[in-house]
Design goal:
seven-stranded mixed beta sheet, 14 helices, 443 residues, FAD/NAD(P)-binding domain, binds flavin-adenine dinucleotide, Polyamine Oxidase, Chain A, domain 2
Amino acid sequence: MNPVLIIGGGFAGLSAGVALADRGVKVTVIEQRRILGGRAYSVEDGTTGELIDNGQHALLGAFHETQKFLKTIGTDGLIRYQDRFRMVLAEPGGGRMTLKAAPLPAPFHLAAGVARCRGLSVVDRLHLLRAGFSIVTTRSLPDRMTIKDWLDSLHQPESLRLRWWYPLSISALNELPHRASAELFLRVLKQAYFGSVRDSSFGIMTVGLGDLYTEQSRKFIEARGGQVLCNTAGFQLTFTGCRINAVVLRNGGTIQADHMISAVPHHVLRKLLPQELMRKDAPFEALTHLTESPMVSIHLWFDRQVVDEEFIGLVDSPIQWVFDKSRLWKEGDTQAGALACITSGAYDLIDRSKEDLIALAQKELGRFFPDVQKAKLIHSRLIKERQATYSCTPEAEQWRPTQETPYENFFLAGDWTRTGLPATIEGAVTSGHGCAELVLRSM
Ligand SMILES: Cc1cc2nc3c(=O)[nH]c(=O)nc-3n(C[C@H](O)[C@H](O)[C@H](O)COP(=O)(O)OP(=O)(O)OC[C@H]3O[C@@H](n4cnc5c(N)ncnc54)[C@H](O)[C@@H]3O)c2cc1C
């Protein structure tokens, strides 16, 4: 009998496995795909031979659980944090708005940065400072308030929404302002901007996701007597009384375990659970109410460097963020001119064709970076993630189950569980660590 079985080898499952292995527990992780990483993985691009991520990921200094996880597996040094918060947005035609924190303690570092930000009008700066004050003093928001409702209530002008609120909120929650939960967004802002100076800094990976955490987690778990089995898909969970006892695999085999952690997406868990439990147990029935929000990543290789920042937001564009991988990743890992263009909450793009989206990205980049018009596009690749994250609406909060279930030896991990955070790496790792603690307590 396995002491602990974890189903799913993404951030949630691997962080749970590593935390348990670190405490001397032999874990088995099963992953249906050939590679680990789930919704945060690297793949080799056949044409260039370079590794690319399904979507360039960014972290925040406030991602404390993620930092703990990476430190345990020895890769925390592969994230480079800004000394202080700095965010640059491109305006059509080549203009820039740079918001840089001042060398002061939080939150004065940002307040002074806003006051000095030349790319924002004086009126916008005053509105932003007023919103900052409101974030500090707000204890709770009305039920079901969206980010748009919240911005409306503070009379935030459209020019400021385009240059600050939309780029931040859409990427933080992978959801559009008129659908996204204001409560969840405010929690992220409070953690990031009203904690320490470091909490507000962006952390950028200097390697692909595969080198950041998947293989290192596997090695960590295996070195402590556990096992990580890829190409091993769970098909059905079986329960007796108040306990889970096994997972039946898609290949017909069965794995029994004393404790089990589901670390698969909510729409997969729905299929693994017996139908009668889906009807009987409220936390499982709740899964049917969660929906998903898409993301699109367009990878472009130009024959030269065309962007002058490591990463930059585009004001009022269907392409929200552009990452220059040759400035971010370790030297030699990628060639000059390799860009990752990201769109979160990508409802308008997800059904468009590859040709259409590549042309759109080229046109948009040309509007913001004049050098693109002189450069030659040598290669492109599109990655659509239709179910990138659960949709962080205000309604969804009530349906997110906690790590505990009605079954004493069965726990739930994943960025969609009730962590108090949106669907991010930090949410996934927080849930993984939470499950590991619950398993240890029940052993
Ligand atoms: C394009 C993109 C960009 C993103 N950018 C950011 C970012 O910048 N910052 C950030 O913090 N977050 C970002 N995210 C979100 C982040 O990637 C996720 O929150 C996180 O990876 C979720 O991890 P997880 O372990 O909860 O789920 P998953 O990664 O989905 O892991 C679940 C695992 O279970 C496996 N599985 C499924 N079914 C079975 C089965 N039947 N049997 C066995 N295994 C199974 C899956 O293959 C998968 O490996 C982004 C997501 C996407 C898609």
